[in-house]
Amino acid sequence: MSEVALVPCESYEEETVYQAVRAGMALLGGMERFFQPGERILLKPNLLSKASPEKAVTTHPAVFGAAARLLREAGMERLTYGDSPGNPTVSPARAAQTGGLQAVAERYGVAAADFDHGTMVSFPQGKRTHSFYLCHGVQQADAVLNLPKMKTHALERITGAVKNLYGCVCGVKKAAGHVSFPDRMIFAEMLADLNLCVKPRLHILDGIVAMEGNGPSSGSPTPMKVLLFSADPVALDSVFAALVHLPPAAVPTCVAGAAAGVGSMAPEQICVLTQEGEMTVAQAAATYGCPGFDVDRSGSSHGKIERLMRLVPFIQTRPQVDLKRCVACGICQEACPVPGKAVHAGQGKKARYDYRKCIRCYCCQEMCPAKAISVHRGLVNRLLSGK
């Protein structure tokens, strides 16, 4: 059985979060179960872009600080942190500063790891890929504590523990990965390999205020008031999916992760630990879940209908720009990984797409600072997918 601890938490007040994280770790056996004094421990938050904490784009500094404080109290002294933002114009340091993590890291003596540079790391046992261009900060760590944010995701439906590891890949190599793995299931299989390569010891999901709708950066903050803890990222993401009434079987990262042996997806293989006692996944969803959470529940992420929709252009999903919101900043063009670019903008010109080139990776939507890009599903698409 994979264990996922669930602790409710009402706010980001520092001491409230600390006590909740402490309670969650106690349910799993404490930090000492996962880390040893003397090890170089990397805290890996979600620092997708330059965003203030209240926008729910990044891991909240209160959650990051609580994890660092508990590690210090457990005798862990060699702590670092970092992430590689998806926006090529934003440095890891700038994202950490704007997100409030830099000040908290300085308070607890957590040094910034090198996420500006990286080298290729061989992973011959991978099923989808045999190498990763990993940041030096990841390679220099003995152990990784993953600190993802509970959010929706245009490509993978949700982003949690499994998806957050993509920030271990350095800089522009992340965008290039979408060209190499242009399908949501193929991309999820690559993420499964990445999780097996990096092997985080522990995952703590910040779901106190989550993001629904047009995630992972342009959605709406919404209170979920939970923290999830697990050594199994697939089980954790499966509980996350259940809490928002999304079948884990519709989440590509859960399906690919379970198939690759990263973790367990089946509810009968997951035990939810709470301070009130053990629960099934269904009981946790009934007690702590939100059936109205705005997430894509259309069809199956790996079924025949979706494969058909990828082959027929007029029923494919695609990114769509709201020209009233577009500020002609050009970030969507910079984020596009396609040679020759599938979207053009900047220098006073608003975004326009060449859908013949578009691979539906949604990097443009993910990085748009004006929340001007969303995923469009036409009528035929919605009828076929059951939404």
Percentage of residues in strands: 15-25%
SS elements, strand count: 17
Determine the mean pLDDT.
Answer: 93
Overall body shape: globular
> How many structural units, i.e. domains?
2
CATH class of the largest domain: Alpha Beta
Distance between the termini: 34 Å
> Which fold name corresponds to the CATH topology of the largest domain?
Rossmann fold
Number of helices: 15
CATH superfamily of the largest domain: LarA, N-terminal domain
User: Structural class of the secondary structure composition?
Assistant: alpha/beta
Unreliable sequence segments: none
Largest sheet, if any? 11 strands, mixed
Q: Please give the radius of gyration in angstroms.
A: 20 Å
CATH architecture of the largest domain: 3-Layer(aba) Sandwich
Q: Can you give the helix content as a percent range?
A: 25-40%
